[in-house]
Amino acid sequence: MNAQKAIDPATTSARDSAPSSTWHSQMPDDKEMLRAAVELTRDIAAARPGIYWTDMLASTAVGYGALAGAILVGNPLIAVLLGLLSALALYRSLLFIHELTHIHKDALPGFRFTWNLLVGVPMLIPSFMYEGVHTQHHARTRYGTPEDPEYLPLALMKPWSLPVFALTAILLPPALLLRSAVLVPLGALIPPLRTLVWGRASALAINPQYRRRKPEGEFARMVFWQELGCSTWALSVLAASIAWGWRPLGIALCVVSLTAFLNQVRTLVAHLWENDGEAMTVTAQYLDSVNVPPPALISWIWAPVGLRYHALHHLLPSMPYHSLAEAHRRLSAHLGEASTYRKASYPGLSPLLARLARSTMTAR
After folding, report:
1. Dihedral of CA 238/164/119/190: which sign?
2. Full-prediction pTM beyond 0.70?
């Protein structure tokens, strides 16, 4: 069934006719859906180590292998194709950072350390940049408000904000290199700079108002070692580039820039971005989020590691990514085509981007 047809006209009309500042807060929770989401998925709620380890390690090996090929091969066309493959594989590897924020710390022994060693530190995006940040996005009273680090009312902003939002991601890799190679070491000597870098440049956040609080306890110790690893790696890469040439670093930055761009485009369609700052019910948060389930053909490529079920993830934040497809199947079958649950399903990337673009053109 076409997911667009699953939207209830009465609900849609009520939402569209209500003032944009009120429809979210006025929407009551669908208790049947919330109860079913918990009760029907208890038996698939445990992370399966074999899937996590195999997927992460294979994606990482393909990503770095293709990157090495892109750097070493002489044929420009083959180099470009290998670069594209590397970007897609590393994109998948990087998105395991999302899983790290939700799985229990004892669920996958050694996974966080290995991911940081192989992916987070070499890509200069260690897990601390998301841990302790992303959970605020899921907080019941923070989602969609100015205190949400991962929310902007993009649908209510000007049309030019969308391409700017997407294209600025290309600058992320050189910015991360500057952060780890220059700003963090200098911050160790200059406390005000350290405070600034931590508060403004140490979180994967899109809300410019967000300021990160100083880390404490065990988390602060983890941050120290991850920062040390990133700075050591960044300075080593720069030293090697000075000694042996800048071509490998340039190609690597291009590949990671493409990865960052892909993630930013995915972010554009992770939500409808229609909330203007008010607190929302769980159901309203769900309907402001997006599922792109089958029969969408390539959503697993541009929204990997379970992120094509982003709305479902907001119902069940701790559900492991490999169980989301089965959870979606069960809930769809149990609740039916006319249910609230089906209203968060969309047919693909292009329709969602078009919807968001139209929203910006009519925003006041």
Report:
1. positive
2. yes
